[in-house]
Each structure stands twice: as C-alpha cells, then as structure tokens.
Specification:
By secondary structure, the chain is an alpha+beta fold. The chain contains 13 helices and 23 strands. Bound molecules: adenosine monophosphate and glycine. Glycine (GLY) binds next to loops.
C-alpha cells in the first residue's frame, strides 16, 4: 500500500508513525511533510492548501489511499477532488467539513437539532453586532465564522473590547472573508475536554479523551497558541460524562449531519466544556486535533489504517477501535517568543527514543542533512506510561534531552489533570 498524507505538522508526524506500523504500508508520501517527517515518509514541497497541486501529485504517483488531515484542504474539498480521480480517502468531503469551516453553520446545526452549546447570535453587519453587544453581560465570546488559523476566538471583558474585536474582524478583515459573519456567544465556564471520534456516518467511536494547554505560559497565562502540550486521558471526562455525551452530543451530531445531506466520514473533533449544566460543545473540528493526536495515537492499540479504511468504506464497528490502558503526555518545544516574534534556523539534536517515547516534529527542516528549527512550535516530546504521573515525568525527561538554542516549553503540562486525580 502506498499512502499519501496531506499536511506537515506534529499531528501528521504522529499519524504517519501510526500508519507505518501496518506491514502492508510500503511507502508514505507527505505533502509537504517537514524535516522530521522526512525520516518516516517521502516529502514533496506541495502546500496543504494547494488542492490542485495535491490532486496533480496524486494522479502522477501510485497512491492507494490518501489521508487528508489539516482543516484548509478539507474545507476546500480536497477529499472530493481526490475521490473524483479514484483515490479512496480518509477525511470528510467539503459538504461535511463545513462543520468546522463555518461556525455559523455549526451553531445553527446545534440549535436546530437540540445539541447542547453556548447560547449565541450571529451577525453579518458590524453595527448591528455592536448595538447588540452594548446590551450584553461580560465576558462574551466573539468568533469569526470561518477558518482563522485558530485565532478567530476573542473573549471580550467589556463592551469596548468587544467593539474593537468586531471592527477588526468585520471591518478591517484581519481574518479575511472568514470575518464576513461573526457569532457573539455566551461565555461558558468549566474544564475543557477534547474528544476525537472516528465516524463513517453510521457508527461513531470516540477515542481516548484528552486535554490541550492552549496558552503560551505556565498557569494558563499568556497568549493563545496552537497548543503547548496535551495529556490523555482527560481525568475530568468520567465514564458517566462520556455516556451522556454519546447520547446528547456525539450520536445527535452524526444524525444531524446525515439529515442535512452532509454525511460526515473521518475524524470528528468535539471541543467540549464541562459546565455545571452538563457538557456543551464549544467547537467542532472536522479533523484530528493538534497536539491532541500526538497523545491519542500512541495509546491506540488497533491498526490505524484498518480503521481509516473502514471509515471510508462505511464498515466501522465499535470493536475495531481499542486503546491501551495508561496515559500519554506531549510537551511542545517552541522557539522562544512564539506565538509572536521568534527566531529560527537553530540546529536540533534529537535523542534516541525508547519504545514509549516519541519525538513528533512540527516546525523543522533538513538542511545539509541536519535538522533545524523552522517554525514556532518545533516538536512535541511525547511519552506514554502506566499512569498519567509517569507519562508526564517521562515526557519532561525526554524534553530535557532534546537540544536547540532558544527552546521554550511550559513546565506545567498535565499539572491540572494530576490535580484533578488527586482530588478524586
Ligand atoms: P477555538 O479557537 O475555537 O479552539 O477556541 C479557543 C478557546 O476559546 C477555547 O479552547 C476555549 O477556551 C475558548 N472558548 C471558545 N468558546 C468559548 C465559550 N463559549 N465560553 C468560554 N470560552 C470559550
Ligand atoms: N488543539 C486544538 C485544535 O486542533 O484545533
């Protein structure tokens, strides 16, 4: 089997390492991949947003199966185009990827089908939004409708901040056309949980739950980032809550998408807030989370390719997806200064890894055979263990063995999860 993986981050590195465990996989092409992925796949410089380039590449190479992981190509219809030239794909078609591509769409879907979420109003006119915001209690949450590189959510503490956010998004178009519409949403409180689930449009099988750490600094301070680390499982997400989510959120979402003629096949990501009134959806993603995937896939016992093919073919069953007991932790090493200004081009020395340790490379390139930093988030030092405490300890021990100048990482990944376990 020759497999094409679209994308080039830590998440794709984790997906590729899992796919490689299947003995029938003889080659993996990564578009564009990165300097670390190059050790596990053949990388070609085609951007993940260049759907025409991806389709051209796939038509010129012997690709048996494609895995499209990032949001942009999914929303742009990469799966539709690859399937049209006869390449079976893992990932939703554009009609279904809209669940992430338009927050107004997904909010209307949840309202129509009674799926618990934050109360909200949508606006396509800035002045109407600003007038409404003057009547609200604070904080409120303002969300650009479309994709915004994970930056389209603003928590405004007062009307002046809210007005500024609306003007930047809708008038100055800081997120381009993604800001043509916005949502103004009730601010929810409670622990956050990420649940990734495989679905073939009939059956939905949640993976082990996880917890992202989105802020740049320890103690959840500093700016929002693409994710500074993750742990799995998320101890706030009990079996009881999981059963409730299956009945109130997961199955209803799959049915709602079918009822809309937008059957979702792929990995559906539920960003949940566990509020006092129960679990509510704060976001859907149409794909694997990054860096959630880096802790979820190392715990997957079953064969990833078999699951992905079953998702594509509509033959997914519950017993196809099994996870190991134990836990995982991923500590993201970033270039100092991220998510604002940072320097790149520093040589990275990666240590030998044991069987429970993984280096998932996100922002690095190979130059003269040497791995050098090339992005904000550089790599994820990841480890599994019998307990969360052990996984966290091993991930930090691994992080300390990775060397590059100006490396920065949070020191408290997993801290909140461990505190939750101590309270139990
Ligand atoms: P997103 O970019 O959609 O992942 O959202 C970024 C973060 O904003 C989430 O992880 C939450 O912490 C926060 N957020 C989004 N919606 C809400 C909400 N309705 N109430 C409180 N926080 C929210
Ligand atoms: N970790 C959040 C996301 O992938 O969107």
């Amino acid at each position: 089997m020759k497999i094409l993986v679209v994308g080039g981050g830590g998440r794709e590195h984790a997906v590729i390492k899992s796919l490689k465990k299947n003995a029938s996989v003889t080659k993996i092409y990564a578009l564009p991949g990165n300097g670390g992925i190059a050790d596990d796949a053949e990388c070609y410089p085609v951007k993940a947003t260049d759907v025409d380039g991806i389709v051209k590449f796939a038509s010129e190479h012997p690709v048996d199966f494609a895995v499209v992981t990032p949001d942009d190509p999914l929303v742009l219809g990469c799966v539709n185009c690859l399937e049209a030239i006869g390449i079976p794909c893992f990932g939703p078609r554009a009609e279904a990827a809209i669940i992430e591509g338009s927050k107004v769409f997904s909010k209307n879907l949840m309202k129509k089908y009674g799926i618990p979420t934050a109360a909200s109003e949508s606006f396509s006119d800035a002045e109407a939004a600003i007038a409404y915001l003057k009547t609200q209690r604070y904080p409120v949450v303002i969300k650009a409708d479309g994709l915004a590189l994970g930056k389209g959510v603003i928590i405004a503490q007062n009307a002046a901040e809210a007005e500024r956010a609306v003007r930047e998004i809708m008038c100055d178009k800081i997120f381009g056309a993604s800001g043509n519409k916005i949502l103004v949403e009730e601010f929810l409180e409670g622990p956050e949980v990420s649940v990734l689930a495989f679905t073939d449009g009939k059956t939905i099988v949640p993976m082990v739950s996880s917890m992202d750490h989105k802020r740049a600094k320890d103690g959840d301070e500093g700016l929002n980032t693409g994710g500074m680390g993750t742990v799995a499982p998320n101890p706030y997400y009990t079996e009881k809550i999981a059963r409730e989510c299956m009945d109130t959120i997961f199955r209803p979402t799959v049915s709602a998408m079918n009822a809309e003629g937008r059957t979702f096949k792929g990995c559906l990501y539920f960003g949940l807030m566990l509020t006092r009134d129960g679990a509510k959806v704060i976001e859907y993603n149409c794909r694997f989370g990054d860096p959630e995937t880096q802790v979820v896939l190392p715990l997957l016992e079953s064969d990833l390719l078999t699951i992905m093919q079953a998702v594509r073919n509509g033959t997914l069953t519950q017993d196809m997806v099994r996870f190991k007991a134990g836990a995982a932790c991923c500590v993201v090493l970033a270039s100092d200064g991220y998510p604002q200004k940072y320097e790149t081009g520093y040589e990275i020395s990666t240590p030998e890894t044991g069987k429970d340790e993984f280096i998932f490379v996100a922002g690095a390139k190979k130059e003269d055979g040497r791995l050098k930093t090339s992005g904000g988030r550089v790599l994820g030092a990841t480890a599994t263990g019998d307990t969360l405490k052990e996984a966290v300890r091993k991930a930090y021990a691994l992080a300390e063995r990775v060397g590059f100048e100006n490396a920065y990482y949070r020191k408290d990944i997993g801290g909140r999860a461990l505190a939750c376990l101590r309270e139990e």
